[in-house]
Sequence to fold (482 residues):
Amino acid sequence: MSTSSSHHQSPTRPFPPGFLWGTATASYQIEGATLADDRGPSIWDNFSHTPGAVWNGDTGDVACDHYHRMEEDLDLLGELGVGAYRFSVAWPRVQPTGKGPANQSGLDFYRRLVDGLRSRNIEPTLTLYHWDLPQPLEDEGGWCERDTAERFADYVDLVARALGSDVERWITLNEPWCSSWLGYGAGRHAPGLKDIGKAAAANHHLLLAHGLAIPILRAAVPSAKVGITLNLGDHRPGSEHELDVAAARRADGNLNRLFLEPIFHGQYPQDMLDHYDQTQPGFSVVREGDLELIAQPLDFLGVNYYFPSTVVDTSRATEARLAGYVVAESEQFPDLRVRSLETPGRDRTSMNWEIAASGLTSLLVRIRNDYTTLPIYITENGAAFDDYVDPNGRVLDHNRVAYLQEHISAVHDAIDAGVNVQGYFVWSLLDNFEWSFGYSRRFGIVWVDFPTGDRLAKESYHWYRDTIRSNSVEYATSVGSG
Ligand code: FCB
Fold:
């Protein structure tokens, strides 16, 4: 498709007045300064320093050096005109060992950030956990242990008391699926374990941590709006064959229902409990009363969406190839017996993620139909592309503009269908440390020159600023919406 990147063309689609526009980041991905002001080590420090764990041996030691460049980044947000900024607090800055009294200099950093946002009329949206667990807690078993959820509750209390006067919107966890299943199951994220039974236990203890945090936040910050951010997907079977339909259901169970059902229905899905029945410790760690804690009322749901997936049963890979699909090489979780398909001809990002904005609309409609009518915020959406600074000193990332336009338009479709979406956050403000991909994947609307730390607004930044100003988006009719 062709996109006029800096000038809006009619017809445009207006968003409801007060729709919240924002951008998102995460502590370990941008802050650097991992030793400053008594910050303790996190599982991501350990993991990124493990040879072979992260592309090119990259680490978050320096990252975007946001810790020392906060004022500049605040100015970028101010000029962008966002109504909100989503950031995360690094637990090991607040409690260097994961326990005990608050480290005041760690809290002071976030106090300066919150004050800087408020003075620019930007609403802080605070994520309490975006994956940087204090390493000493991992040494005692990490999220496989129930005690980690209790320690999280203590940490939340410290942050809520310190920042609660100026932060209303709180997100307990970011993408607990990644923390548990990628971290303890697939070994692709910290702490790098490959143990399905431990992943299931981590899944539960993360949700328990969320449940324990809710009353603490409500007590410390009476006006708090409390939510959780989930990475959810839209799984389509590669054919109508019953095995493929069942495979899509299993993938959906693992990614979506293991989180949505306990949070909104107070129970784990029976098919998944049966599936993980033989794994140790698995869901045997669930205790009486846990699900009541996990299912406490929330004020909103945060949804992170990047791509849809088409899947088949492992035994049907050959049929899928004959039907014209490319079958992805590796299976993430062999026990699920699910293979992912690539649709030839579909546009993909440099993560190799398929671009299909309609998946976002159908996901949102499904959440409303099956789970909740609470306000929804798209707390992350964006794309990595192979950006470069051109000879005129500009980053003309038209493909990112197209991606954002299509997905914001897909959000509009959901609103038209009656889904209560109240805000949208671009991932990400800055190019940053993209976890196991290191600095090789750029998601920012601002270019970061990693050797110097220099920032440069990309074309998408200017486009997003215009979108925010007009509170509207152009109609998108690209291949991505098909
Ligand atoms: C999400 C993470 C975020 C970022 C994007 C690309 O899973 O929450 O930190 O890495 O993916």
Summary: Confidence is low (pLDDT under 50) at residues 1-8, 478-482. Residues 26, 29, 174-175, 178, 231, 304, 380, 427, 434-435, 443 surround beta-D-fucopyranose (CB under 6 Å).
